From TrEMBL:
Protein's name according to its UniProt entry: Similar to Cyb5rl: NADH-cytochrome b5 reductase-like (Mus musculus)
This protein's UniProt keywords: FAD, Flavoprotein, Oxidoreductase
Annotated source species: Cotesia congregata (Parasitoid wasp)
Cofactor: FAD
Family: Belongs to the flavoprotein pyridine nucleotide cytochrome reductase family.
Record-annotated FAD-binding FR-type domain positions: 50-150
InterPro entries xrefs: CBR-like, Cbr1-like_FAD-bd_dom, FAD-bd_FR_type, FNR_nucleotide-bd, Oxidoreductase-like_N, OxRdtase_FAD/NAD-bd, Riboflavin_synthase-like_b-brl
Length: 284
């Protein structure tokens, strides 16, 4: 994401005397120019779908017993005019010690990519990622994924995720709340085992500070803990819960997004089609 987005003026910055040009009109024009520049910059992506690029481990944090966050920084000092560019929801392939796996970034800057990674108890390769040291080299290629979000195309977006599938939705929600002209309502429904194993809790709380974002967590174990701004329910995201959620939305004006395990994705896709929600995308 470009980091030089024009700063939004405050209400008190306007004199209220109908001056020309108004500061809000100036901001609107600058925002259009910024968006056009962002669109034109796609040809300068540091990443390539067919070629691995070298990144270095910049930061690794243990979030809880199941998840880590990993930040990679582009290793070439001569970046020139290139930058890391993604459409929210896209993913890359990471290659480390001849092991490759797709991961979806939760955020990025001009030269860094941040990932949410699930560490499996019996997963040799994910444990290797957990033990990475600063400066180690990682190969990255991409981005991939054909999902393209369009501002205000739908009145509501209903998101269903389980586990690390949450990663695909974080940059999408961020792009919506960062866009002052986007009035799309977001309903995030994410499944985990317990509150203690939910990564990015603070991010989710910040999202719910916005009028158009709602977050529901469905926990299979202890659901007694409270998290400010987030609704917590006991149980799995099953057909009954899916139907109960979708009953609050019109199929014609809603987009449904799904990201989780293969079994989860297949089940959710089948249910929403049965409920006549034809506008949907499955992140695989």
């Amino acid at each position: 994401m470009l980091s030089n987005r024009p700063q939004s003026p405050k209400e008190e910055d306007c004199c209220g005397n109908s001056c020309n040009p108004c500061i809000f009109d100036v901001h609107k024009n600058l925002l259009k120019q910024w968006e056009l520049k962002k669109l034109n910059s796609k040809s300068n992506n540091l990443l390539e779908p067919l070629v691995y690029k070298l990144f270095k481990v910049y930061e690794l944090k243990q979030l809880n017993n199941d998840y880590i966050s990993l930040i990679l920084r582009y290793s070439d000092k001569e970046i020139n005019d290139g930058r890391v560019i993604f459409n929210p929801g896209q993913h890359v392939v990471i290659n480390y010690l001849k092991w490759s796996k797709p991961f979806t970034p939760i955020s990025w800057t001009d030269d860094t990519i941040k990932f949410l990674i699930r560490i499996y108890a019996d997963g040799i390769n994910t444990k290797r990622l957990k033990n990475l040291e600063s400066g180690e080299l990682i190969k990255v290629r991409g981005p991939y994924g054909d999902f393209v979000y369009s501002r205000n195309k739908f009145k509501s977006i209903v998101m269903f995720s389980v586990g690390s599938g949450l990663a695909a939705f974080v940059p999408i929600i961020k792009s919506i709340i960062d866009d002052e002209e986007d009035e799309t309502r977001v309903c995030l429904n994410a499944g985990f085992r317990s509150v203690d194993l939910v990564p990015l809790t603070k991010n989710l709380q910040l999202f719910t500070d916005y009028w158009n974002v709602e977050c529901n967590l469905y926990l299979t174990e202890d659901a007694s803990k409270k998290v400010n701004g987030i609704n917590i329910e006991k149980g799995r995201i099953d057909e009954k819960i899916c139907k109960c959620i979708l009953d609050n939305y019109l199929a014609s004006s809603s987009l449904v997004l799904i990201c989780g395990t293969e079994k989860f994705n297949l089940s959710l896709e089948r249910w929403i089609v049965e409920y006549n929600f034809v506008n949907y995308h499955v992140f695989k």
